[in-house]
Design brief:
The complex is a heterodimer of chains A (292) and B (373). With 292 residues, chain A is mostly helical. In chain A, 72% of the residues lie in helices and 3% in strands. In chain A, a hairpin with a 2-residue loop joins strand 1 and strand 2. With 373 residues, chain B is mostly helical. Chain B has a two-stranded antiparallel ribbon with strand order 1-2. The longest helix of chain B is centred in the middle third of the chain and has 27 residues. The chains are: A mainly alpha (292), B mainly alpha (373). Chains A and B meet through helix 4, helix 9 and helix 11 of A and helix 6, helix 12 and helix 14 of B.
Chain lengths: 292, 373
């Protein structure tokens, strides 16, 4: 039973990471109808930036903030340079470009920093908390992960529901032509959407780096699980990405704990098959009619 | 004038697609025979590798260029073919042809399982699903070491050549023959009723459905065809390298396959050969480049990766129809110049798909005029 309890806690912590990456995928999907397969490797790159700063004796939190801001800028640049020229062309072209970015960034990181696992420090202790005299597998750092991702989600809710900018972002995502007629600079809003998504991704990259084997491909699996989470939550729903992330994190933690961690990717495939087979629009999206 | 010239060129070829494709394949066979006769054993091995990569890339080219779906997991399907083949050879040896067909069938069966739920929907679901497979299948082989041999992998035995031919050359011939057979079959498929259905589904699913095409079935069919090509190529890869292990089928293989297919030209059946040449030779080129510029070890190891990434991005942004599309455009331009006509060239393509296949002198469509003034 305590094993189950520990797996549950691990699942929550991992699920938060998946939720943050999934949020990035959802934001970009809503804005530009592209799945950004480079989401993980962009986060990997900003995390390596943080490592470079840490190596130069920059403080931990300064490096953390710089990496987050770099994520913000990186997303905007990628949208402007690589995605904008492909608007109006088949969606598959943009998808292939994001895959090209994935390969390019992993190759660059390997060339610059080497492919070996070099370790990334955690902000807080990673040894388990003790609750009621028993040591559980949930550390101060896991608490930090939980707080950071929940704060990210809450600020997204505030952004989308309570600000003028959020309203413009929603309008640009759902009715770009109407939004343009109403005076919204849709192009800029799309760039901003990519920037925010990349910000969320680089937060996840920084949070997961201490526990993952930190090397240029450490985000590959995270990206795949985040994609699963985004599909479970419905690709259109930012709130769904939190719940999808949690469900995916828990399910994969149980699969890994009871059946072996090498089965986790196939567990994710099984989740996708079940969700796509039963509720193809995700568990939380409303069905939408398709137009010719 | 140019119209007449084009007709004259066309009339040299037989009218039936089957005959035309067989003729092209025969030409390819003669070409490869001439090449391999003059080569060392190692070069023969490379020719065989080119042929096997052409098989998997051709399947992907049909899937993406003709049907508009994208797979990030064809390395995984190659792994299924390779492991099926190796296990058959070890536990139930039978004639080579039969082993190859069963390997294809295993890969096709997995393709069916993957495509059925994922193609119910438009959009990125299939891509994500196949990405998971590419990551997950090798780990499965690592877990069940008793069956799959773990890191060591499973050994394969190459077919015994007839007297007077060395083993590499014999295997290369078998691979090239199979590649040409597969390409003829695919070329006929693309020209058939199924091919038209696949294109219709790519261009507009709802219109295709209204025209009586079973959209989901067409997509699943295209996916299964390309998965079985990958299975065959995987079995050949196991034969060529003499061993099947998980290191060969990492996620990067799937992504490099995609890059090579896009570079060759999605939807083309000549493009896969360009892509295959790049897959076989790029690692060597990049190693020698980084040596001659005395770049560091980590740069040398990653230069090829960087090039694949740059290729994917640049081709998509600048020339989505790839090398083959570019060659076709050049050829068409040469014809036009020869005909001394001053009408604008319309061969530049704007995306994967219909433009890439349009015959050179087809009239410009509204879409062309809009995107390519």
């Amino acid at each position: 039973m305590s094993h189950f309890f520990d797996l549950t806690l691990n699942g929550i912590s991992a699920g938060m990471i998946y939720a943050a990456v999934a949020l990035g995928l959802v934001l970009i999907w809503r804005a530009t109808r592209v799945i950004n397969f480079a989401q993980g490797s962009m986060a990997m790159f900003t995390t390596y930036l943080a490592v470079t700063l840490l190596d130069r004796q920059v403080g931990y939190w300064e490096a953390f903030v710089v990496a987050l801001l770099a994520g913000l800028a990186f997303g905007a640049v990628v949208e402007r340079v690589f995605i904008r020229p492909l608007r109006g062309k088949p969606e598959i072209n943009a998808v292939i470009v994001t895959l090209g970015l994935l390969i390019l960034l992993e190759g660059l990181a390997g060339a610059i920093y080497g492919v070996r696992n070099r370790g990334f420090p955690a902000a807080f202790s990673q040894s388990g908390l003790s609750i009621g005299g028993r040591r559980v597998s949930f550390s101060h750092f896991d608490v930090f992960i939980l707080v950071a991702v929940v704060a990210l989600m809450l600020s997204m809710v505030v952004l989308f529901r309570a600000t003028d900018l959020g309203l413009r972002m929603r309008a640009s995502a759902f009715a770009p032509e109407m939004a343009r007629l109403a005076g919204v600079r849709v192009g800029r809003i799309l760039t901003l959407g990519w920037a925010v998504a990349s910000f969320a991704g680089s937060l996840a990259g920084l949070l997961v780096a201490p526990t993952a084997a930190f090397s240029p491909d450490y985000m590959d699996l995270i990206l795949v699980y985040a994609f699963t989470a985004a599909v479970v939550g419905g690709l259109d729903s930012p709130a769904g990405s939190l719940i999808g992330g949690l469900l995916t994190g828990l399910a994969l933690s149980y699969v890994g704990g009871y059946l072996g961690s090498s089965l986790e990717p196939l567990g994710a495939a099984a989740i996708l098959i079940v969700v796509l087979g039963s509720r193809p629009e995700g568990l939380f999206a409303r069905p939408t009619p398709r137009q010719v | 004038m140019s119209e007449r010239r084009r007709l004259r060129v066309q009339s040299l070829l037989p009218n039936q697609p089957l005959l035309r494709h067989l003729l092209a394949a025969g030409g390819g066979a003669v070409f490869f025979l001439a090449i391999t006769l003059g080569l060392s054993a190692y070069r023969d091995f490379e020719m065989g590798e080119i042929a096997l990569y052409a098989i998997v890339l051709a399947g992907m080219s049909i899937l993406t260029g003709v049907n508009g779906q994208i797979s990030l997991g064809h390395g995984g399907f190659m792994a299924v073919g390779a492991y099926t083949f190796a296990i058959l050879q070890i536990h139930a040896p039978m004639p080579l042809g039969l082993e190859l067909i069963i390997s294809m069938a295993a890969s096709a069966a997995l393709g069916l399982m993957v495509a059925m739920p994922a193609t119910r929907l438009r959009g990125p679901y299939l891509a994500g699903m196949t990405l998971i497979l590419a990551l997950g299948l090798p780990q499965l082989a690592d877990k069940y070491t008793a069956t799959f041999g773990g890191d060591q992998g499973l050994a394969t035995t190459a077919p015994t050549p007839p007297a007077g031919i060395n083993a590499e050359q014999w295997l290369a011939w078998i691979e090239i023959l199979c590649a040409l057979v597969v390409l003829v079959l695919l070329a006929n498929l693309v020209r058939s009723r199924f091919g038209r259905s696949m294109r219709a589904v790519r261009d507009n699913e709802i219109a295709a459905a209204l025209a009586g095409i079973r959209v989901a079935r067409t997509k699943v069919f295209a996916f299964v065809v390309s998965a079985s090509c990958a299975g065959l190529a995987g079995a050949f890869l196991g034969l060529s390298t003499g061993v099947v292990n998980t290191g060969e089928f990492a996620l990067t293989l799937s992504l490099y396959l995609l890059a090579a297919m896009v570079l060759g030209g999605a939807g083309s059946l000549v493009g896969p050969w360009w892509g295959a040449v790049v897959l076989v030779y790029l690692p060597q080129w990049s190693t020698s480049i980084s040596k001659s510029f005395s770049l560091g070890n980590s740069v040398g190891a990653n230069l090829a990766v960087v090039i694949y990434g740059v290729v994917l991005i640049v081709v998509m942004l600048a020339a989505p129809s790839g090398v083959q599309g570019g060659l076709r455009w050049l050829g068409h331009r040469a014809l036009r110049l020869g005909a001394a006509r001053s009408s604008p060239i319309i061969g530049v393509t704007t995306g994967i798909g219909p433009e890439a296949e349009r015959p050179p002198s087809a009239p410009p469509t509204a879409e062309h005029e809009r995107t390519n003034p």
